[in-house]
Every structure is written in structure tokens, then in C-alpha cells.
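Ticket #4471: complex job returned nothing on first submit. Input attached below:
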Amino acid sequence: MTAKIKSFPGTSLSEEDFDQGKILFNFDELNGKFAWDTGIAIGRYLASLKDGVILGARCGTCRKIVVPPRVVCEWCFRPMQEYVPLQDTGTVNTFSLCYVTWDMQRVKNPEIPAVIEIDGASPLHGIMHLLGEVDPQKIHIGMRVKAVWKNARERGGAITDILYFKPLEEV
Amino acid sequence: MTMRKVAVVGAGMTRFVRRALETPKELAWQASRMALESCELTLEDVEAVCLGTAPDSFDGIHMNGEYLSDGAGAWRKPYMRSYVGGGTGVFVPIQGWYHVASGLFDIVLVVAEEKMSSYYPHAQAAFITIFDHTTERPLKPNLLWIFALEMNRYMTMYGISKADIARVSVQHKRNAAHHPCALLGDANITVEDVLNSEVLAWPVQRYDVSPVSDGAVAVVLAAEHVAKRLTDKPVWIEGVGWNLDTAHWTNRDLVYPRYVEYAARMAYEMAGIREPKKEIHIAEPYDPFDYKALHHLEGLQLAERGQAPQLYIDGTAALDGNMPVCPSGGLLGVGNPIAAAGLMKIAELFWQLRGEAGGRQVPGQPRRGIAQAWGDLMQVGTVVIMGR
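Support reply: We reran it on our side without changes. The output follows.
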């Protein structure tokens, strides 16, 4: 049918159409404010971060140790009742050098998000966080890293109590 | 379980553009009108409507399904919106399929619409709400992060070069040059153009990514006895599958999309396909990023793990190859109005299998094709197999 149809609907606009007032539009900001309860497992996770500990949870049936902790094992659907303190070291599973912020602002020095497999958790079980104090060109998958924490007094029980992860050995 | 045979009998789509003058309802109506006209039906013949559209946050409209309902011709009919993130565009025809296969309805209109441009200044920022609000969002994550993280894991673990991944983008954008609705068709683009484009989130560069777009697509599904009266070229839905993996995406290996494999196996079993590499003649894997097409070809069992780039290197994936991949031009070339982009792949298989795809027609009278989409937080696979 695409072969038979000569014209398709859909009218393309450009930025100029907006800048020069060629079309009318309605601009508004939606003001959404939320206070999310941490819940049971993530509440424990955050409280532990405040104490400088990354907390996991162990499934007594699957014997997996997951991070962050959760109240139910998504695989066997049984309750996860055992919390396990993990190391604050780990291995870079993957990373990126990101030159745009979450709202598409360009930045010169890249943010370095990574998935870090946490020591003490099951293989391939990690968290998303940032890398720092590192030459971006020298990061590699498999690199050993350690958490850099905020000062104990400044920690508020949040994932940002870890500032970033840095290489364990000098790179 | 007895299921009725279901055919696609009509399709329509708008052009995919960066910013459309038309409202979401107007886009949905244009695609729906075209789909009905293509099989000479009117809205009175339609017994139920299935609608797909992605997050409400793009439009800033709560209950977007209800908002779009008149554009989709849904009033005073059984109507339902489905949503599985980027997988929506290939899930909504599955929903339409079981409406008809079950015997509930004989004719169902399936509509997918997306208008991403309303979110100001860029739809990217709307995606922050897909991340966990407590454990991830404080890090100010960017949608590009998860793709860059997955791409890096994929290319590093298998030793795949950026240049080989760039071939995907080149081929899809070249194919799109023949698609009348395409936003980024380019017959002359080269691997060097991709490798020299702006670095957004290494290893992701500008031309590795599909564009934010507005657009709509619609198809008409009919039960066998109706389809055979409507057209002598029905295209049958031979298999469907869908599958969801854990939302704890940092607790599994991103190198391989197991959920796509499970969705594909469900669809292959239904279609009676034992050797996908031989029995699938056209593949339309989901390609919002170039590496994603490769990742998904492996999940779909159309390439061994880590070997999908070979399909592009040896010409298998070319328009005149043994198994053309994304002859439409895909999301990389035609554009990525999320839900509409997935349904565009269904429309493409419909046109290709009927021999109506014009300048991008796959030669050799292909008999069977597969379309796949992917989404949510790196976790959902949706698959449809179509044949004539």
C-alpha cells in the first residue's frame, strides 16, 4: 500500500515556527510534588547507607544475595527475611562517559555512570552509581572499585551517601 | 485451546516527524482513517478498538488512552489501552490478536500513537521517572545511561567494534530513504558519518540513536472468515509472544536479552517454527539504538550470541540479502514515536509480505516475517510473527 499512496498525513513543524510565532501554543508547567515512603526493605537499605554499609538480602530458597534488598524474591516469590551486610567494594560491570545531563544539557566533563557488582552479593548483582577520581580513558570493565562515602555526619540515609566509587588501586 | 486464525487486512500511518502540527488525537485519526480505507471498511464495521501509547508523562495528560479514544474511533465500543513501555507497539497488535482469536470480535482496529514533542524542551527529561525514585533518581540518571551501559557491556564482552555496530545505523537509514514517512532516511550515510557524530554517552553517539518523533500507525485485524471476504491477500498473524524480566536491571547480565528469547520462543512454538534462521525471511527487530538491533537478533535466535554483526558484514541483513533486517528503515531511519514505531514494524511486514513496499520491497516473494519491540526498564520483549 505504501507503494500506492502518494501523500501521507502529518505536518512537520520547525523550531522557527515557534520562535517566530507562526503557530499558537499553550505553555504550562505541571507542578508535581511527592514524598515517597521508603518501605521496609529499602528503608533498611537507606538506614544502612547512613551507617556506611551497603546492605543486601539473601533468599533462603534460591540462595541468591541481591542488592538492593527486597522483601520478596522475584524468582521464587518467597519472603526474603535475611539482610546481609555487603562490602563497599566491587567490580565495574559496565560504564559510560555521558556528556549530556538528564535534561539534555551538554557538559564538558562527562558524568560516569556505571553498574558496579558489589562484593558479597551474588555474581552479576550490582547497583547503578557513579565513578569518580578516575581518568575516564583508563576505566575498563572488570576494574576494581571502592565506595567514597560522605562524612558520617552529613549522611542522610540516601543513595547519595555514597558520593561515587573510585578505583581500588592507582590507575 | 482452539484459537481462530487472525489476519492483518489493512494498514495506515502518518509521516514520522520531529514535531507535528497535528494533536495526538488528529494523528491517531489520520492513521486509523487510512487503515480502514485501505481495506474498504468503515468504523461501523469495527467491533472493538485496541490502543497503544507510551508514558503519559510525554503528553502531560493523565489517562492518555481516554484522551485519544475519539481519534482512535473508540467511542461506544469495547476499548482498551495497553502499555509496556517501548514494547507497546508490538504488544497492542497482540492484544488485538487475542480479541479476535478468542472469538469475541471479528474485526478489531489497532491504533498506536505517540507525540513526544510536547514535553518541553526535550522528551529526554520525561524519562527520569522510569528510574526508581529512591535508589536511582537521586543520581540524576539519563535515559541514555542505560543504553550506553548495555551497549558497552555487549560490545566489550563479545569484542565487537563500534564500526561494526555503526553498520546497522547506516543500513537502516539507507533503507529508510525509500520510506515515504521517514524522518531520517539517508541514502548516502556512511560508517564514518556515524563514528564522527557527536558523542552523547560513550559508546553512544548521535547517529547510533533514533530520533524523538511524533506519529501514528493503525492496522485492521480480522477473523479468517471475514479476512478472506475482504482481501485475497490477507497476512496472517502466525505467532505471538511476550515476556517480562526483573526490574532490578542491575542484578542480571545486560549482555543478552533473555526476555526477548522467551517471547520469541513462545511465538515460534505457536507458529510451528523450529529453525528460525531458515524460516524467517524478514526481520524487523526493535532498533532504537543500532546495537539494540543486534542484541535483539540474538535474542530472537536469528544469530548466535555475539555474532549478529556478521549478518550486516556478509550482506545477509541487506535489502536483497537472505534475511533482510529492518527493510522499513527501522526506528533509526523512519523515526521513533515509541508505540507507533513498534506498530510501524507490523505495518511494514504487512506491506512487504503483500509485495506493496515500493522502493524498499524485499525481492523473492518473502513468505514470513518477524517483528519485535522492547521496553520498560530493559526488561520486556514483545514478538509477532506474520506470514502469507
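The first strand of chain A starts at residue 54 and ends at 58. Closing as resolved unless it happens again.
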